[in-house]
């Protein structure tokens, strides 16, 4: 698989991205403490029939200029789509990235073909910063050990200020009422043992969306695309192709 890399520079921020394949566009959006590297086992599966893009949100990964603010992240994602002339892609968002792609889809339903929410932080949390910290530690230990250097490297590059800002924004945000605006066909994917964003929130998210189905991946926790990549890729490709 040949992977291209690019850097889009805007007035107040920049977005680094990787792209591979040809065909209908699919845009992958990572979560808190992440980067486009988190989709490294998803990109090869998509790159045959699709044009896959994995971007680094502002302040994360290779997107060094600009600071992360959750309230403007969906607008930055829209600017990314406009800059690359990506017309009506399918959007895939993990954790915080799920919040961002759901927000964009609710605000601009005409711009999205299909929506995939992976252990998405799209509904309010109940256990605050301490609970999120415990859940994040458990999620880290459930990741494949070969991925630990990427996780730690991404967290180091983002830095404590960006991580704190993103966590605070996410805990304070609430787009629950906006979910009813989403008309795109939606796949909700959840790890059976997610302690960071519990399965109960996945079931509630599926209930609130008009055109969705929930798929639970046995044995996975918060990052099924890393923990159970074959099962995750099978579900993703089946959904996009039907």
Structural summary, described in words:
The chain has helices spanning 43-46, 70-83, 96-107, 128-142, 148-172, 199-208, 224-227, 229-241; strands at 4-9, 14-20, 24-29, 50-56, 90-94, 114-118, 185-191, 212-217. By secondary structure, the protein is α/β, with parallel strands linked by helices. An 8-stranded mixed beta sheet has the order 1-2-4-3-5-6-7-8, sandwiched between helices. Strand 5, helix 3 (96-107) and strand 6 form a beta-alpha-beta unit. Helix 2 crosses helix 3 (96-107). The protein is globular, with a radius of gyration of 16 Å. The model is unreliable at 128-138 (pLDDT under 50).
Task: Give descriptors for this structure.
alpha/beta; Rossmann fold; 8 strands; 40% helix; globular
Q: Give the biggest sheet.
A: 8 strands, mixed
Question: What fraction of the residues are assigned to beta strands by DSSP?
Answer: 15-25%
Low-confidence stretches: 128-138
How large, in whole angstroms, is the Cα Rg? 16 Å
What is the correct CATH architecture? 3-Layer(aba) Sandwich
The tally of strands reads 8
Query: In which range does the helix fraction lie?
Result: 40-55%
Question: In the residues, how many domains can be counted?
Answer: 1
- The CATH homologous superfamily is termed Alpha/Beta hydrolase fold, catalytic domain
CATH topology: Rossmann fold
CATH uppermost class? Alpha Beta
Taking the alpha carbons of the first and last residues, their distance comes to: 24 Å
Annotation field: number of helices: 8
Structural class: alpha/beta
Shape descriptor? globular
